[in-house]
């Protein structure tokens, strides 16, 4: 055993699926293939990333930590990275790794349908959970009791585990192989650990079996008056125990303490916290912690120099210190990975090298103070400049902006419209949590589960999408005046009280350390958020994309020493395809079309099929929901569209409703 970054880890158990397949092939046997399924990059970032349990047709797997991915990347001489300087800097702070790079998933396109390009790439994963149940006889046991088969070269969906010689529940059927599926129960703790359920200890109540050293277990499902309930039966001593005893608050006292297991890292650490019963398909089993940016051109010479120094330092690695004084050698070494540095004059390249060689400022201390708004501020500042909205594409960032004239019917509170004809959005995964979603990554460090065993990961996985959008800017004076009268309203006072109650009831430890007021979005955010949602719903009927394909990016905060006040939004659609999107959304930014979209959206916001219940909904203790006059019939959007899970929404802030006069917009008569 070795200890790395406070983890107990056995390197001999590393996941190397391709190497295992090669060994079997070398023996001349009909080997089981390494590929067990496929998924889109977006799902591997937001739904099934490292540490998540992914359902396959016949069993479940868990993508492993990034340490095991290096063996896959090493099959290629050059590893492509994604260039997004501001996102990379934020990721470096949050992952406490100065030179972390952003890499795409290990994948290569195929030239022909039946060709083999990219077959030696892929995301490594292990079978998890590793306790299976036979569908024929209810036999419950580890993987070693079952036969694995995955021999069809083009049908990875047929990969399966079988219980060979199964004779059925009563033992009277003809012996044959029957499918085995994942046992459904797991143990998790609030600090992100996950473990197999201890079935043997459970049925014997923590004692050894009196009839056999390694007894066989079964998991029958019995139907009772209150529904189906599984039980664990020992065939050796005859003991049985229902899984319903482990459920709920009462069942937690009967569960063992957490062993500190991270199955995606194949490692353990000290824990001992209380555990709770989890099901494989539970929605709170894995919450990704991600950050994203719309890549904007770098306009500051200092920022450009800092970015180039980072790229050069990552590309050179140990060669930077080895050949630090030889500019010609360093230029030759970075010619391929960093062509921009190679064409610099010697004196400029020397300045880049000097900056790259500076003693690193460790980002640990910065993480606690980091605010997600830091990623949005540069975007907002760039979008404010009329000079950049000239319709010319920036080749480095991929951004193309065009100024649109305001239509005569556009509400006067919307002062500026930009057509974002092309954009590049980069999303990075930095970790995950279990049981409770993380409000801010710097709130409670120990709940943040890392993606790798290394204390300072060299890279993290990211996706890159191309698309288009519409940017709207609101009049700052009008927003400020509206906010001043909103702060004293009964509706806002009720929202503040509900947010405080909601924050204090959180399952995590966040509420104990953070003032809830710092997490409550100001009224302008509720206003911009509601406007984005009604526009998404209206644009879905006119632009050719469905509502789930449209997403929001909100700029709504008060002025401070290092950032100007913001009140605006970007509605965009992106695709991972190399051609991006088709232009249907940006077409709606034309004055005549946008006027109709905004007017119709505001008119629809005045009515809801659930009115008057919806229009008068205000949280009152003990209620702690974080929305007011908003529901799925009128304002709420799909999870893929909303950046706040449909929180901080209230139609009364957009338009006057019966009994309320808080509306920011006024409909034309």
Automatic annotation (TrEMBL):
Residues 531-635 form the MrfA-like Zn-binding domain. It comes from the Bacteria. This is DrmB family protein.
């Amino acid at each position: 055993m070795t200890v790395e970054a406070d983890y107990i880890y056995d390197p001999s158990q590393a996941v190397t699926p391709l190497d295992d397949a090669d060994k079997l092939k070398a023996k001349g046997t009909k080997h089981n293939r390494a590929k067990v399924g496929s998924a889109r990059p977006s799902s591997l970032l937001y739904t099934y990333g490292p540490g998540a349990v992914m359902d396959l047709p016949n069993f479940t797997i868990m993508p492993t930590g990034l340490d095991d991915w290096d063996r896959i990347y090493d099959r290629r001489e050059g590893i492509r990275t994604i260039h997004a300087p501001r996102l990379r800097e934020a990721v470096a702070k949050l992952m406490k790794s100065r030179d972390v790079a952003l890499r795409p998933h290990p994948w290569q396109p195929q030239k022909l349908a039946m060709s083999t390009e990219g077959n030696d790439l892929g995301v490594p994963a292990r079978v998890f959970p590793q306790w299976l149940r036979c569908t024929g006889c209810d036999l419950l046991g580890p993987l070693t009791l079952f036969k694995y088969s995955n021999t069809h070269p083009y049908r990875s969906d047929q990969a399966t585990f079988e219980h060979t010689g199964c004779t059925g529940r009563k033992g009277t059927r003809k012996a044959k192989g029957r499918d085995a599926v994942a046992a459904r129960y797991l143990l998790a703790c609030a600090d992100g650990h996950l473990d197999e359920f201890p079935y043997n200890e459970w049925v014997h109540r923590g004692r050894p079996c009196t009839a056999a050293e390694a007894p066989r277990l079964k998991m029958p499902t019995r139907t009772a008056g209150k529904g189906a309930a599984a039980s664990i039966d020992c065939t050796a001593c005859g003991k049985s125990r229902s899984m319903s005893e482990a459920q709920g608050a009462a069942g937690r006292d009967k569960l063992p303490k957490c062993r500190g297991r991270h199955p995606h890292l194949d490692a353990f650490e000290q824990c001992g916290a209380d555990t709770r019963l989890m099901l494989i398909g539970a929605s709170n089993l894995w919450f990704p912690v991600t950050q994203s940016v719309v890549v904007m051109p770098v306009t500051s010479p200092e920022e450009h120099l800092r970015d180039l120094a980072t790229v050069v330092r990552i590309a050179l690695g140990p060669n930077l210190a080895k050949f630090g004084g030889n500019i010609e050698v360093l230029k030759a070494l970075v010619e391929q990975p960093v062509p921009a540095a190679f064409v610099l004059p010697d004196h400029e390249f020397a300045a880049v090298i000097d900056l790259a060689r500076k003693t690193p400022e460790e980002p640990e201390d910065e993480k606690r103070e980091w605010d997600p708004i830091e990623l949005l501020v540069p975007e907002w500042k760039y979008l404010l400049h009329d000079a950049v909205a000239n319709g010319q594409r920036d080749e480095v960032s991929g951004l193309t902006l065009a100024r649109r004239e305001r239509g005569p019917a556009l509400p006067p509170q919307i002062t500026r419209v930009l057509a974002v004809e092309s954009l590049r959005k980069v999303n990075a995964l930095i970790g995950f949590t279990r049981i409770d979603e993380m409000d801010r990554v710097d709130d409670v460090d120990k709940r943040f589960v890392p993606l790798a065993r290394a204390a300072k990961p060299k890279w993290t996985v990211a996706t890159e999408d191309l698309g288009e959008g519409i940017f709207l800017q609101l009049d700052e004076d009008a927003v400020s005046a509206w906010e001043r009268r909103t702060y004293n309203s009964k509706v806002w006072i009720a929202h503040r009280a509900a947010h405080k109650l909601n924050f204090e009831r959180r399952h995590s430890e966040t509420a104990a350390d953070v003032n809830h007021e710092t997490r409550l979005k100001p009224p302008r955010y509720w206003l911009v958020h509601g406007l984005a949602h009604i526009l998404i719903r209206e644009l879905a009927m006119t632009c050719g994309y469905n509502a789930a394909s449209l997403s929001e990016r909100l700029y709504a905060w008060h002025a401070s020493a290092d950032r100007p006040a913001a009140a605006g939004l970007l509605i965009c659609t992106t695709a991972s395809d190399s051609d991006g999107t088709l232009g249907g959304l940006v077409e709606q930014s034309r004055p005549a079309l946008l006027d109709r979209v905004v007017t119709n959206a505001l008119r629809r916001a005045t009515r809801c099929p659930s009115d008057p219940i919806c229009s008068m909904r205000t949280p009152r203790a003990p209620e702690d929901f974080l929305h007011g006059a908003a529901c799925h019939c009128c304002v709420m959007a799909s999870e893929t569209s909303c950046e706040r899970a449909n929180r901080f929404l209230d139609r009364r802030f957009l338009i006057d409703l019966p009994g309320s006069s808080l509306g920011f917009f006024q409909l034309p008569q």
